[in-house]
């Protein structure tokens, strides 16, 4: 595995590649291994912070259960500027909302897989990234999430 740390408005973020796919995004770190995929992922991450509509095209591999992969796919389907609730995703997958929340917290590739776009029925819900809910709010504001009045 190779890793590359990128400075972002939410702090340093380390991108990790394995076998030609991005497998992790973690806050913090100091890694400087370059590859074509990591350089492209870093460019796309910087592009996201310039304009969240640019999106991500790097190949991803979610390591985890079939359920985690299904939740990550549902999160990737949420358009920029929109949000869903844990309950909405739960209904779509036929699972309890609490399980969706746990899977969001286990998302190995945050920002790229936008777990920050998933909210509780009556509030923000949690966020496992550095800075917690404050980072979630910052990402949602950056995306001008529709209807978010914070």
TrEMBL record:
State the species of origin. Answer: Sedimentitalea arenosa
The name this protein goes by in its record: methylated-DNA--[protein]-cysteine S-methyltransferase
Q: Does the keyword Transferase apply?
A: yes
Q: Which ranges carry the Methylated-DNA-[protein]-cysteine S-methyltransferase DNA binding domain?
A: 66-144
Reply yes or no: does the keyword Methyltransferase apply.
Answer: yes
Report the transmembrane regions from the record.
none
Task: List the lineage, top down.
Answer: Bacteria, Pseudomonadati, Pseudomonadota, Alphaproteobacteria, Rhodobacterales
Q: What is its EC number?
A: 2.1.1.63
Q: Which GO terms describe its biological process?
A: DNA repair; methylation
Which NCBIfam families does this UniProt record tie to the protein? ogt (TIGR00589)
Q: Which residues form a coiled coil?
A: none
Name the domain of life. Answer: Bacteria
The entry assigns this protein to a family as follows:
Belongs to the MGMT family.
What GO terms are given for molecular function? methylated-DNA-[protein]-cysteine S-methyltransferase activity
Q: Which reaction does it catalyse?
A: a 6-O-methyl-2'-deoxyguanosine in DNA + L-cysteinyl-[protein] = S-methyl-L-cysteinyl-[protein] + a 2'-deoxyguanosine in DNA; a 4-O-methyl-thymidine in DNA + L-cysteinyl-[protein] = a thymidine in DNA + S-methyl-L-cysteinyl-[protein]
**Which keywords accompany this UniProt record?**
DNA damage, DNA repair, Methyltransferase, Transferase
């Amino acid at each position: 595995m190779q890793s590359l740390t990128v400075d972002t408005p939410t702090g340093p973020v380390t991108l990790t590649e394995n076998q030609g796919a991005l497998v992790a995004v973690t806050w913090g770190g100091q890694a400087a291994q370059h590859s074509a995929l990591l350089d492209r992922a870093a460019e796309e991450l910087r592009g996201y912070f310039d304009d969240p509509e640019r999106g991500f095209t790097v190949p991803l591999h979610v390591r985890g259960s079939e359920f985690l992969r299904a939740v990550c796919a549902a999160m990737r389907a949420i358009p920029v500027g929109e949000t869903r609730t844990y309950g909405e995703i739960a209904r779509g997958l036929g699972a309890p909302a609490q399980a969706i929340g746990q899977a969001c917290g286990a998302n190995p590739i945050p920002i790229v897989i936008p777990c920050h776009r998933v909210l509780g029925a009556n509030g923000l819900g949690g966020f496992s990234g550095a800075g917690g809910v404050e980072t979630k709010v910052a990402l949602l504001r950056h995306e001008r999430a529709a209807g978010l009045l914070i």
